[in-house]
Amino acid sequence: MFVLNIVSVARCTILFFLAFTCFLQVKAQKIQIINTDELRFDAASQSKYCKGNIKVLHEGVFIQCDSAVINDKYNTVDGIGKVYIYQPDTFDMRGNRVFYDGKTKIARVSGDVVLTDQKMTLTTPFIDYDTKNKSGSYSAGGLIVNENDRLTSNKGYYNSRTNVASFKENVVLVNPEYTMTGDTLQYNTSYRTAYFFGPTVIQSEQNRIECVWGYYNTASNLASFSRRATIFGESSDITADSFFYNRNSGDGEAFGNIVMNDTAEEITVYGQNGLYMEKKRETIITGFPMSERMLDNDTMLLLADTFYYYSDTSIKKLLAYRNAQILSPRIAGKCDTLIYFMKDSVMLMLEKPILWNENNQITGDSISVYMKDEKLDYMFVRNNGFVASWLEEDRFNQMAGNQIYNYFVDGKLRKVNLFGQGQSIYYVREDESDTAAYTGVNRIASGAITIFMDSSGIHNIRFYPQPEPEGVLYPPKEIPESEKVLDGFHWQIQLKPKDEDFYKRKSQ
User: Fold this and answer.
1) How many distinct structural domains can be found in the chain?
2) E strands of 88-134, at which residues?
3) What are phi and psi of 13, to 5 degrees?
């Protein structure tokens, strides 16, 4: 038992001796003077005054300067003149003055500081640099140059081990292709990626991007934006909750609460998913899309499954594809595909188009709607054209032809020209007043027909050439059921778009 205790004590003594030796070695890691032209020692302050070609070493870090005071008690170096601090294959730094603390291993360098590592070069008036962790911070302004990127800020922090720099206040990143400004930014010099955490603007010749959160890789020109971002192009801008953007191709994907504006044309498109193709000048929006456009102080609304928007200097068009619907105070309509040519103020409705204006329903194989001074001017119906005007109960004025031109005054249908197998059924009143009784129903056909209308219905009709015979006039109550409608008549008022359909879409 006694022998074991002696062995244990011996082991403890050896371990204590080794630990104390290591402590003495750590404590003994004083700043070493490698070279100096002149040296004077002050015993009272335990300071060494060095002058000329000074070079000292501390734990792998070299410090050179013209003159210095080295304090043995506090293990510090206070040097001035052509300061050069470096660690081979790690970093080197130049300045006019340095104060180095051997305990904290922090060097405070001032005066035209230039810090260089394998990835970047930093210039600043003043820096605190941790030589152990290879990190530095400045608060008097700085510039980092990394290949083609130049980044300035009021405050900054750089870590050579992680190659990550953080910047605050008046942050500006300049690249040959764009300039990025913001308040808070983090930059990885290895991957040349900027991460921004606050309002940021990226300006280039092609566009301007405003965002608050995300990253931008300056080498690949790939970017991701979140927490709401906007891309401003030449003639339009698009905003979304998040973006993926490729500056090289000019393509971007947008997600969530998309708002696309063309301020020149006063049109706005909403949706949930978008594809932005800057070089092609195209934007595709899906996910319950809807558009609004101001016309004559009124709003024209448009719905569809997919919106395709194209814009350049010569043409601007919006294509609404699949289940297109249109609603405004003057007209409502629907079709499968609608193309809106903005500069010409023309809407082309394709595939089973239907338009409603007041009590009039207009159908055909295709319908072209022309506007003038932001007001409804005329419509052209191509092939199988049909205009039905509801009067009362089951009574309809009807006009059919291969081609129909509808002319409007103050947004109201006032004249109809029918060409090619023109046919009409119209009710005749006792006089031109709105309350006058109907005295007859006229059914007539001709190669071309011109019909003039007012608030009470048809008040004049002309035929070219005059038909032979001139038609059949029936008393209203005696017209046969087979003669009440023209071939192709289908009253489809139940399909007319409603306000609530658009408001519901906008809230989605």
Assistant:
1) 1
2) 91-101, 106-117, 121-130
3) -65, -40
Unique residue bearing structure tokens 């290895």: 190
Residue burial 60-92, b: 16+ Cβ < 10 Å; e: rest = ebebbbbbbbbbeeebbbbbbbebbbbbeeebe
Distance of CA 155 to the CA centre of its chain: 29
Indicate whether 363 belongs to any domain: yes
Q: With contact defined as beta carbons under 8 Å apart, do 310 and 339 qualify?
A: no
Average pLDDT estimate for 304-331: 90
Largest CA distance in the chain: 143
Which one-letter amino acid corresponds to residue 25? Q
The rounded distance, in Å, linking the Cα atoms of 116 and 462 is: 90
Distance of CA 471 to the CA centre of its chain: 62
- Token readout for 147 is 């290949």
Burial of 232 (0-12, 13-18, 19+ CB in 10 A): middle
Amino acid letter for position 82: K
Among the listed residues 353, 309, 313, the one whose alpha carbon sits nearest the alpha carbon of residue 333: 353
Give the phi and the psi of residue 501 in degrees, each rounded to 5: -65, -40
497 CB burial (10 A radius; 0-12, 13-18, 19+): buried
370-407 per-residue burial string, b: 16 or more CB within 10 A, e: under 16: bbeeeebbbbbbeebbbbbbbbeeebbbbbbbbbbbbb
- Residue carrying the six token digits 């004559």: 296
CB 399 within 8 A of CB 427: no
Domain that holds residue 378: 358-492
Q: How many helices (H) and strands (E) does the chain have?
A: 2, 37
Which H or E run includes 201? strand 193-204
- Is residue 354 within 8 A of residue 362, CB to CB? The reply is yes
Q: What is the pLDDT of residues 383-397, one digit of tens each?
A: 999 999 998 888 899
Q: Is residue 449 part of a domain?
A: yes
Mean pLDDT of 301-321: 90
Kindly report the backbone phi and psi dihedral angles of residue 27, in degrees, each rounded to the nearest multiple of 5, phi listed first: -65, -25
Q: How far apart are CA 246 and CA 248, in angstroms?
A: 6
Question: Residues for the chain: how many in total?
Answer: 508
DSSP state of 255: E
- Which is more confident, 428 or 505? 428
Range name among 37-51, 79-93, 207-221, 413-427 with the lowest pLDDT average: 413-427
Concatenate the DSSP letters of all residues of 417-470 into one string: EEEEEEEEEEEEESSSSTTPPEEEEEEEEEEEEEEEEETTEEEEEEEESPPSS-
1 HSE (CA, 13 A, CB side)? 0
- Above pLDDT 90, what percent of the chain? 57
Write the CATH number for 397: 2.60.450
Does any domain span residue 325?
no
Cite the beta strand spans of 221-341 per DSSP E. 222-232, 237-240, 242-246, 251-262, 267-277, 282-286, 290-295, 298-303, 306-311, 316-327, 332-341
Is residue 438 in a domain?
A: yes
The verdict on pTM exceeding 0.90 is no
Spacing of C-alpha 506 from chain mean position = 19
